[in-house]
Design brief:
The longest helix is centred in the C-terminal third of the chain and has 12 residues. A four-stranded mixed sheet has the order 4-6-7-5, covered by helices on one side. Helices cover about 15% and strands about 40% of the residues. The protein is built from one helix and seven strands. The mean pLDDT is about 95. With about 90 residues, the chain is mainly beta. The protein has one domain: PH-domain like, CATH 2.30.29.
Length: about 90
């Protein structure tokens, strides 16, 4: 059995998917930073495994830290930074 959540880097947004359904979207224009780990106060869409968390810091919203855990965290973070045009 696979992980419940999957993460898709679409043309203009990150999509959190549950099976074929998109359950959450974060536009790249709303991402101000991407870093490893997770802060205490966050919105999280994570799987049980792996425990390698990735935090997207959003520019807007009440809860600005958005935590996911893609299988290859480092490669996913690099591609996300490229698409969001972050250093």
């Amino acid at each position: 059995m696979g992980a419940p959540f999957d993460y898709e880097l679409a043309d203009d947004e990150l999509r959190v998917k549950l099976g074929p359904w998109t359950v959450r979207r974060i536009r790249y224009a709303d991402v101000e930073a991407v870093r490893s780990g997770h802060p205490f106060w966050n919105e999280h869409w994570t799987n049980i495994w792996p425990w390698r968390f990735l935090t997207l810091r959003r520019k807007s919203g009440i809860i600005r830290n958005f935590v996911i855990n893609p299988a290859d965290r480092d490669a996913f973070a690099a591609e996300l930074r490229r698409r969001a045009r972050l250093p």
